[in-house]
Amino acid sequence: MADPWLTLVGLNEDGLDGLTPAARHALDQAEVVFGGPRHLALARVGERGKPWPVPFDIAPVVALRGQRVVVLASGDPFWFGAGGSLAAHLAPHEWRCHAQPSTFSLVAARLGWRLEATDCLGLHASPVQQLLPRLAPGGQAIVLLRDGPAVAALADWLVREGWGDSALWVMESVGGPRERCRTMAAAEAAAQLSQDPAHAPVAVALRAQGGTALPQAAGRATDWFAHDGQITKAPARALTLAALAPRRGERLWDIGGGSGSVAVEWCLAGGAAISVEQHAARVDNIRTNAQRFGLHHQMQVVHGLAPEALAGLPPPQAVFVGGGFDDAVFAALQTLMPAGCRLVVNAVTLETEALLAQLHAAHGGQLLRLELASAEPLGRMRSWQAARPLVQWSWQR
């Protein structure tokens, strides 16, 4: 790292006054400086300044390889900043970074919050639904938002999800001379912000109150999901996820997705999923569920029928077949599944059950028969109402 051509400089709302001598030197020597309009104004770089293209693209920076270039970002460029996007396309010797305290650190310091006990999210271009799995009574989060209207949108979403009692700290221009902090309940935010809107740069700290936290274990109740009745019921889904054994960063193929509930719970465990479904209305339900939980980056929906719809998909580490399993699908999976891939198939029909028994005899694995019954009213009393028996075959290639 003798003489990198690119320098990443963290710039907060105190502008040049907050920079180290090394960061100031890099900025003074730069031939071209990239940043948002606000950062370029704070850095006072004049005609050397180049605003980021819209939509955001690092190509103009990489095209200047060999010139002296500075990229400005808020606080720490590698925490929801441009640093990671740039470093992925550069060799280590091509860049250096002069970071400052992140906005998260500044907000936590103002409020006296332990940062390690606080969820931190950059929601500039991401859905607020990403907060849903993290909300719990008394839980704390700090989120970075695009602009003032996004603050009102966050508060409205909290109210719709039942978290209207949550306390919000709306923090503008934190770390600079224009810093302002206002406290309000989410349910009151729309009225207050309509009279006195928030202005970028803005972050919101929240302490969640009043709602129902999303359970963290697999087998969540069916009323969390949009569905038309075609959904793996909660107890069977818990057993299915246990057999699939999700691991962080792994990819699931969810074939015959129905509502996508198995794919959703896989993604909530830290993975990614591709849900394949032949019926258009159910495809819509899967997309609705992915959006409900803020999983649009982790879940892909393919409208089609296996095995044809599986062609060209990135390889999985696990496959779940909840419907439409037959010899042709298994033959295709034997070709497409990499070594070590896990397969779980659920069957409720006699024909599919017979096929699973044959495959278990030929290939091994584990074959389970699951019989569940729930207590239901019977006249003035109660009785057991049995669900259809479920046969599950688990196998590792």
From TrEMBL:
Gene3D superfamilies referenced in this protein's UniProt entry, alphabetically? Cobalt-precorrin-4 Transmethylase, Domain 1, Vaccinia Virus protein VP39
Q: What is its EC number?
A: 2.1.1.132, 2.1.1.196, 2.1.1.289
**Entry-linked Pfam families:** TP_methylase
GO terms (molecular function) for this protein are: precorrin-6Y C5,15-methyltransferase (decarboxylating) activity
Q: Please, which domain of life does this record's source organism belong to?
A: Bacteria
Q: Which residues form the Tetrapyrrole methylase domain?
A: 6-188
Keyword line: Cobalamin biosynthesis, Methyltransferase, S-adenosyl-L-methionine, Transferase
Task: Read off the InterPro entries from this record.
Answer: 4pyrrol_Mease, 4pyrrol_Methylase_sf, 4pyrrole_Mease_sub1, CbiE, Cbl_synth_CobL, Cbl_synth_MTase_CbiT, Cobalamin_biosynth_MTase, SAM-dependent_MTases_sf
Q: In which pathway does it act?
A: Cofactor biosynthesis; adenosylcobalamin biosynthesis
Does Membrane show up as a keyword for this record?
no
Offer one example of a GO biological process linked to this entry: methylation
What is this protein called in UniProt? Precorrin-6Y C5,15-methyltransferase (Decarboxylating)
Q: Which organism is it from?
A: Paracidovorax wautersii
For this protein's source organism, the top of the classification is: Bacteria, Pseudomonadati, Pseudomonadota, Betaproteobacteria, Burkholderiales
